[in-house]
Amino acid sequence: MPPSAPLFDWDNLLTELQNQRVIPIVGGELLNISLGEGRCCSLDRYVADALIAKFNFKVSRLPRDYTLNDVAWHYLLEEPGAKRPILYNSIRKILQERSFPTPQPLCQLAEISDFTLFVSTTFDPLLEEALNAKRFQGQKGTRCHAYSLQNNKKFDSNELDDLETDPFSVKQSTVFHLMGWTTSPGDFVVTDEDALEFLYSLQEGGKGRPVNLFDRLRQSNLLLLGCNYPDWLTRFFLRTISGNRMTEDSSRIEYVADRRTPTDSILGKFLRNIKVTVFDGSSAIDFVDELHRRWSRQRAQEEDAGLAAASDLTSSGPVEPAPPVTVPGSVFLSYASEDRTEVLALKKGLEAEGIRVWYDQKALETGEEYDSAIKANIERCTLFFPCISQKALKEIKRPGRRYFQEEWNAARQEEDWRSYPFIWPIVLDDTPADDRFIPSYLRKLQMERCPAGKAPVDFLEHLKVKLAQFEGERGDSQ
What we know:
Elements: H1 10-18, E1 22-26, E2 32-36, E3 39-42, H2 43-55, H3 68-78, H4 84-96, H5 104-111, E4 117-120, H6 126-135, E5 143-146, H7 149-154, E6 174-177, H8 192-201, H9 211-218, E7 221-225, H10 231-242, E8 254-257, H11 265-273, E9 276-278, H12 284-316, E10 330-334, H13 340-352, E11 356-359, H14 368-380, E12 383-388, H15 390-397, H16 403-415, E13 426-427, H17 440-443, E14 448-449, H18 457-477
Parallel strand pairs: 1-4, 1-7, 4-6, 5-6, 7-8, 8-9, 10-11, 10-12, 12-13, 13-14
Antiparallel strand pairs: 2-3
């Protein structure tokens, strides 16, 4: 590793990564392919050479270190009868007929299981192939989305390719091709002009902008790996995916690792001025290799510690019991641990009226058995109370997901099976009912205000009547 590499704050990046608050944005520098017999080249150069052979170009008419951008422009400007669809289809065929293995840096990224959502700035299917190989035993298990200028002109907004309505519910390995994808219909970025058009179309308010994806990007730490854009395009790209003036959001961290930035003093100074962390190593490939090594070592240490803890528990006494089971006619309180005092007051008030209540006293957030027990309790309870407050919304704003959000999603799915209103939002403070950080499906519901956990008398009376009514309906339907 280069001497300056240890100055990079690896510990903070690994912590954010462990909390699933980092989204890698993968560029072409990582696509270093092996051609056998010790020969390697970039995918960009591989496709460029294949186009030169196909169209019988004279290399002498190209720049010395030509790129795919140079070859594409040469075709479009010099070739009689040149058409963009012919260029795109030629590139598709070149990738379909390739025989090289998946690049090692992509395989290393795929092995880092804390990454679930990837954004690709290249048009090839290599990243999803790496994910399928490492996470799904070679089967197609990766979900893919792609942005396309042609599709945006063709389709209505509700048909455009985007993440789920709640972008933070992404759990499946997912790749979003922000600059198009050869595997799907539509165009993709080949030239620098294509990149400009895509980024222009992706601006705030632009037609076809994948809103859910950009909501997720805006609330996550971004790791730009080998994008290698020119100065002007790097600035434009960062501003596009930021959603805000880049110096306004001090809570988010952006990292850049590529071959170009450390040697570009003007761009490097600009990035540091806007608080972007720049990796001063030699390349994005070096960065991924070091990240993979450190993440693997940390994961091994955690597994060893877990085995030791399990051994200690076995020898010292019984394991912590699973959460208590809810019973029919009960209310499930779901809350952020920061609101425990207010929720405890609410619980006591409900129980004083004879209402049975379940809530997670310890707010545990790990363990498959515990997860299963909580989901089972959501299925058994009669009503589900998501507790809303400014403290809870502050956690929702942060990158990553808290366990109470998982409970809310589980309750939303359970509501589909109920014949009555199952979810009753409770507001613990003065949070406005239309606060934009409250999930949209909750904003549509009638909210009950219980300041500091104190429930109004009329609400308690209404609740007791409805609990009896709803539990009767459940019994009739079962």
